[in-house]
Amino acid sequence: MLQIKDVSKEYITGELHQSALDHVSLNLRNNEFVAILGPSGSGKTTLLNIIGGLDRYDSGDLIINGISTKKYPEGRARTAGMRRRIMSWTGSIPTEARWRWRPV
Questions:
Q1: DSSP H helical segments within the chain, as ranges?
Q2: Alpha-carbon distance values, 7 to 2, 11, 94 (Å)
Q3: Could you tell me the residue range of the domain that residue 10 belongs to?
Q4: 63 within a domain of the structure (yes/no)
Q5: Structural domains in the chain (count)
Q6: Rounded distance between C-alpha atoms, residue 103 and residue 63, angstroms
Q7: Could you say which residues of the chain have pLDDT below 50?
């Protein structure tokens, strides 16, 4: 299961503060297909980038199969670990090639 709990993301450029996600919560079950719809600038890509480990959230939590992504190490290892975990969650790679993440 993928859980997004109260996730917020804000982009800051100089004095401009742009809220991309404002306390978003979402639960996705295994093997569930979802469509994310909304007008331009509503945060769809930001949400997908956070789920995919390409961007970081400012507050809230992203939980994959019961494990908070806050427990992942920082930097590249964090992103790679999240991607592996998501690939395992979505079943997009063969079972024998799945990588098991263990908290440090």
A1: 44-51, 75-90
A2: 13, 14, 30
A3: 2-97
A4: yes
A5: 1
A6: 13
A7: 77, 92-99, 101, 104
Distance CA 46, CA 41 (A): 9
As a whole number of angstroms, the distance between CA 26 and CA 45 comes to 15
> Looking at the domain assignment, is residue 89 inside a domain?
yes
- Closest Cα partner for 69 from 99, 20, 55? 55
* Confidence (pLDDT) at 95: 47
Three-state DSSP at 71 gives: helix
CB 47 within 8 A of CB 102: no
* Residue 72: burial class (beta carbons within 10 Å; 0-12, 13-18, 19+): buried
pLDDT, tens only, 76-100? 545 555 666 665 555 544 444 444 5
Output the six-digit token pair for 64.
């994959």
Two structure tokens written together for 88 = 């395992």
Residue 104 lies in a domain: no
Residue 90: its pLDDT value, please? Answer: 52
User: Which residue has tokens 């917020």?
Assistant: 8
Query: Residue 24 is encoded by which pair of tokens?
Result: 């978003």
